[in-house]
Fold:
Amino acid sequence: MSARLVRVTLARLWEPGAAADENERIELSIALDRSGQPDVRAWLDDPSPWPLRWIRHGTVEQPGDVAHDEDGWQLRFFEDAQDTDVPVHRIHNIEGGLRPGEVLTLSAPDGSESAWRVVGVSAP
Structure:
């Protein structure tokens, strides 16, 4: 049985305190528990991938998926739909949950980090 997913929209912050950049966003499908945290049990019980897409102004949107492992939540962005063996981006600072206004950090495979603000949570 598939989990009940919501769409969470993240907008990139270029520096602390800066306004969100509406031209670059990540839209991910994810199950949240009652406290707004990603639901690990729902992810473990759901055989379907939880899709996402990275949307950048002036480029083709990049598909991917959301996953969880012993190190926490991760995002994979696919260059090619057939290539699912890609390095992951790790989600950090998610303690406040995925609610509008919360800020989290993504660390790229090369170790660079970027800040993202949750700008929306809605039904898919």
Observations:
- The longest helix spans residues 40-45.
- The chain has one domain: 6-122.
